[in-house]
Fold this sequence. Notes:
53% of the residues lie in helices and 11% in strands. It contains 5 helices and 2 strands; from the N terminus they run E-H-H-H-H-H-E. Strands 1-2 form a two-stranded antiparallel sheet. The radius of gyration is 12 Å and the shape is globular. The model has no long low-confidence stretch (mean pLDDT 91).
Amino acid sequence: MGIIVNLDVMLAKRKMSSGELASRIGLTQANLSILKTGKAKAIRFSTLSAICKELNCQPGDILEFSEDCEAE
């Protein structure tokens, strides 16, 4: 069981680069990359809110639960 991060999918749908999103929400590209690859252990609600605001989406569009996915 685990959480799948679909941030790259939302970025592609909005035709926005990771660098542009990182700049808009005040996050480093390295930290955004950690989140994007699913290696983050946690995410602040303020960060999730900023991402959703910039991408005009809901948290469920970015984070997904899967029983088939192994949590690391």
